[in-house]
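It would be a great kindness if you could assist me with a short task in structural biology. The full record is reproduced below for your convenience:
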Amino acid sequence: MDGSNGGRRPSGPPAANAARRAPAGNTGRADHAAHVGHAGDTGRADHADHPGRAGSEGSEGSAARPGDAPHPAGGGAGAALRAALAGLAAAEPGAPPAGPAVLADRPDGLVLRAGDTVLKAHAARAGDIGIRLAVAAHPALAGILLPPLPPAVAHPLPGGRVATRWPYGAPLDHRTPGPEVPWEAAAALLARLHTLDPARLADLGPLPAARGPARAAEALRRLRAVPEAGHPEVRRAIERILGPLAQDRGGDRGQARGRPVLCHGDFHLGQLVRHPRPEGPWHLIDVDDLGLGDPAWDLARPAAWYAAGLLPAAEWDRLLSAYQSATGTLGEDPWPRLDGPARALTAQLAARALVSGRPPDEAGQAFADACVRIAGLP
């Protein structure tokens, strides 16, 4: 994952591959992101799902995951789960008499805020959350991951789910202009996470796999469950891109080539909060998908947005340059490793848009178009 060209690394696949794609929109960046179906620089997509244009989810944050299409229609948490989590929130110091505020309510997570405490009901198994919670609380991750509130334990909830407690951090304002988005800070945090020696966490026992590949495979399974969603050509394209990951069930084909490193598993700007707020240092939040894997998957979502023409080249360059500078890889081409995960994230985002139950928007259409282009590539 890396790159430069005499101090300036290529921000997209080699120009020789550009002829493979049929770009749409302004093709001024014809030599960039050819493999992942680049659509040309269409400017900034100004809507809530832009990577870094919605608040955080879990500090765990706000109602939208930037860079991801909404979850399928069908409601959020059930009444029993909501009541149980609200009961935990009511016991927090400084809990408001009117009850907790709902920060997010989706099938995969209910997030409430009670004063300076955030409580999150997780969809994952308790064992997985327990080890990931321990990683976030480990001294080796200080200043990288937002630590949970002590004691760092998972609280049982109805239906076999669990809740965790976190300090409330200040998320990135979705109105932040592009030049002021903290791409460099995000890159620095990712670089510190990826270069941390996992041996420093040996006292925690075996670490789980990062769930980036598994999330992509899950998106395809959700799409298959809604056969009427989307145009057949787009569905076939998504199937071609994500089919191998879904066949692996756990997404093992997407795991690290070489020595796995500690990865976030679901990186986007909505996973950044300042703590202590309002002006403390940035931290990464949301450990549901944390684990060992290929670091390319943590850059894959912004790469997919860039390749679809939804993230300006200047912002992508800021992220990639800062990351490569921090990891000592400036001068290397990142795309041999990044291309596959970026294709998968493009298809994941397209699939999630199709099953969201919402009318198509600019981003969903851009990802669908990119999938069709990708499916026509070798």
